[in-house]
């Protein structure tokens, strides 16, 4: 059936349900699990959508985002191992193109299924740019399981 399952997580409650389902699938298929979170790159200046920040503030903000993302995927890996998944990885990607980063990670990790929630935390930007889940569905050559 499936050998490597990728689960995309953003820490939302719906995303946590996708994580639980991915762990169940990994156990059922005796597959490996790869959890991924895409840490957004912060804008650096006014013209990129932010106030002008000095380099130290930019670096501190990026480090906080990286650490928060790492905690999310580490928690997924720990939960999977605790439940008996034979192998679990935790990956953080840095990108503002969430869907492309998820697809690239699935391809690079040789996953044969992507599991993700239908809606995450994205507010107005999600409405303007479209659903990341829809983008993954329409552009991935790997099967995608979407949970609502």
Automatic annotation (TrEMBL):
The keyword ATP-binding applies. Pfam families: Usp. The keyword RNA-binding does not apply. CDD domains: USP-like. One of its GO terms (molecular function) is ATP binding. It comes from the Bacteria. Keywords: ATP-binding, Coiled coil, Nucleotide-binding. Belongs to the universal stress protein A family. PANTHER family: STRESS RESPONSE PROTEIN NHAX (PTHR46268), UNIVERSAL STRESS PROTEIN RV2623 (PTHR46268:SF27). This is Universal stress protein.
């Amino acid at each position: 059936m499936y050998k490597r399952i990728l689960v995309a997580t953003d820490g939302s409650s719906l995303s946590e349900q996708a994580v639980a389902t991915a762990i169940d699938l990994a156990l059922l298929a005796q597959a490996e699990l790869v959890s991924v979170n895409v840490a957004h790159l912060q804008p650096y200046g006014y013209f990129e959508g932010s106030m002008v920040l000095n380099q130290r503030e930019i670096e501190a903000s990026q480090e906080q985002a990286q650490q928060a993302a790492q905690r999310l995927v580490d928690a997924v890996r720990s939960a999977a191992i605790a439940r008996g998944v034979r192998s679990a990885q935790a990956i953080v990607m840095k990108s503002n193109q969430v869907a492309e980063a998820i697809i690239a990670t699935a391809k690079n990790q040789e996953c044969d299924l992507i599991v993700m929630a239908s809606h995450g935390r994205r507010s107005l930007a999600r409405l303007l740019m479209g659903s990341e889940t829809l983008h993954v569905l329409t552009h991935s050559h790997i099967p995608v399981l979407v949970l609502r």
